[in-house]
Design goal:
The chain is mainly alpha-helical and about 110 residues long. The chain contains four helices and no strands. It has helices at about 15-20, 25-45, 50-75, 80-109. α1 crosses α2 (about 25-45).
Length: about 110
């Protein structure tokens, strides 16, 4: 048997690879979701006001980095999208509570 003729059973593939095997657009949709979650987590936790050129560089690097994260989920089945969603939720709760706390501080002065 030639090496290029070997096939991997579908059951042994990670979930995203299985879904992409059945519907090719699922892989692209997962990449888009991963990228959006990366941008959301970045904006909730780390973003500061930057000049436009630096902002473009940051978002290009986020796009490249999200491809790496998508690759980890696609090939190895790492739960990247779940971790990013949980991180966005936690950071969103933190930002909301910080906003409420600051609003209370200004109203008591």
């Amino acid at each position: 048997m030639h090496l290029s003729q070997t096939t991997v059973p579908l059951e042994s593939m990670p979930w995203l690879m299985q879904a992409t095997n059945e519907q090719p657009w699922v892989g692209f949709a997962a990449f888009v979701v991963t990228t959006l979650l990366c941008v959301l987590v970045f904006n909730l936790g780390f973003a500061r006001k930057l000049p436009i050129l630096k902002t473009v560089v940051v978002y290009v690097m986020l796009l490249i980095g999200s491809f790496g994260l998508w690759f980890l989920e696609f090939v190895f089945g790492a739960p990247i999208m779940a971790v990013l969603a949980i991180s966005a939720l936690v950071l969103g709760i933190y930002r909301f509570r910080l906003h409420v706390h600051r609003k209370e501080q200004t109203s008591t002065k």
